[in-house]
Write a structure and sequence with these properties.
With 348 residues, the protein is of the alpha+beta class. It has one domain (39-310). The protein is 59% helix and 9% strand. The strands form 2 sheets. A 4-stranded antiparallel beta sheet has the order 4-5-1-6. The chain has a two-stranded antiparallel ribbon with strand order 2-3. A hairpin with a 6-residue loop joins β4 and β5. α2 (17-37) runs antiparallel to α11, α5 crosses α8 and α9 (191-248) runs antiparallel to α10. The radius of gyration is 36 Å and the shape is rod-shaped. 20% of the residues are buried.
């Protein structure tokens, strides 16, 4: 066991200062090499504020007072099952979004055009033998870009799985529960790519939420549109039949003619009633689509970052130099205690 006072430790370090400087210098040079070889990383962030439903009810209550004259019912306009903003970050961690993002084209700061997958894994599509590819299970499995269906599982290749895990680390969204602002960040090895990915993530999120919120209303609108077209054709046909029949039997008064006229007029009345009701429901469905469409206010668009976030080259070199200093001191202390000779004797 080596017992040294502080004075003895300082003298030991001073006597071996040349070797200590060699340790520190060598590790500092190694730190410089590592810092230069480590790819730069850039972060771009966008912030949006989603719609809060509290304000939409007043608008539709005022509209309901006008719509009431035409028989349009907006009483259920406030009872919406909105997608909670705290669930928005989960959308950007989903497999459909990741597969969508991997195929998106981007333009790098140098003007190169490639996809996100090619940027993150530039050697993934190159032919030839690779030990990593040889070790992968089923490396040539067929890739999928979108889910096969809502009730079918998605099969990813090994490369896609690795890229998906990488995207989960690089693209994220967080919700400020106090202000309701959603921040979307993207970290990429290229400044222009980071801004593009952040913008694409923001667009995907807003389109996804809009589609989710309005899907049922749009389906209802499409259904009522088809039924309204059918009812319009039926009403126009019944109307034409009545007018045409009246023109042909204008001066004919017989019981059979009266029965036929009453039958066609009854058909016209039914057709008109159905057409009027479907018109009312169609207008109500149009209002529901508009009411359910969320509004997103872009507070801060995605910007191309000017400074990298990593590596911190000065810090990295300093850490390596500090490691060299500690190892050098350890070497001098081991030499002072003749630990190296004792280890050699034990080995021999």
């Amino acid at each position: 066991m080596l017992n040294l006072s502080s004075d003895e430790l300082i003298r030991t370090v001073w006597r071996g200062r040349s070797r200590l400087a060699l340790f520190v210098g060598s590790f500092a040079v190694l730190g410089v090499v590592v810092a230069l070889l480590t790819p730069s990383e850039y972060v771009s962030e966008a912030r949006i504020m989603p719609e809060m439903n509290s304000g939409s009810g007043d608008v539709f209550r005022r509209l309901a007072s006008v719509a009431g004259f035409s028989g349009i019912d907006l009483s259920d306009a406030e009872g919406l099952d909105a997608v909670r903003p705290d669930l928005y970050p989960n959308v950007l961690q989903s497999t459909p979004f990741i597969l969508f993002l991997l195929d998106q084209p981007i333009v790098t700061s140098t003007g190169g055009k490639l996809t996100v997958a090619q940027l993150l894994d530039p050697d993934g599509d190159k032919p030839g033998f690779s030990l990593l590819n040889w070790l992968r299970p089923h490396p040539n499995a067929t890739a999928v870009s979108t889910p096969a269906g809502p009730n079918k599982p998605v099969q990813l290749t090994f490369r896609q799985q690795q890229l998906a895990e990488e995207i989960e680390k690089r693209v994220a969204a967080r919700l400020d529960t106090r202000s309701g602002v959603i921040s979307i960040s993207a970290r990429m090895p290229d400044a222009s790519a980071a801004a593009t990915v952040a913008q694409q993530a923001m667009n995907y999120l807003t389109q996804y939420v809009t589609s989710y919120r309005t899907e049922k209303a749009r389906q209802d609108l499409h259904f009522y549109s088809q039924r309204l077209n059918e009812a319009r054709r039926r009403y126009q046909t019944a109307q034409y039949n009545v007018f045409h029949y009246n023109d042909q039997h204008k001066y004919l008064v017989v019981q059979a003619a009266t029965m036929d006229r009453q039958r066609m007029e009854a058909e016209l009345t039914i057709a008109q009633t159905v057409y009027t009701e479907l018109s009312r429901q169609y207008e109500q469905a149009r209002l529901k689509v508009q009411e359910r469409t969320p509004v997103f206010k872009v507070l801060e668009p995605a910007k191309i970052p000017l400074l990298r976030v990593s590596p911190k080259r000065a810090t990295l070199v300093l850490i390596y130099a500090l490691v060299g200093l500690l190892l050098g001191i350890g070497y001098l202390l081991a030499r002072q205690a003749d630990v190296i000779s004792k280890l050699r004797a034990i080995v021999a």
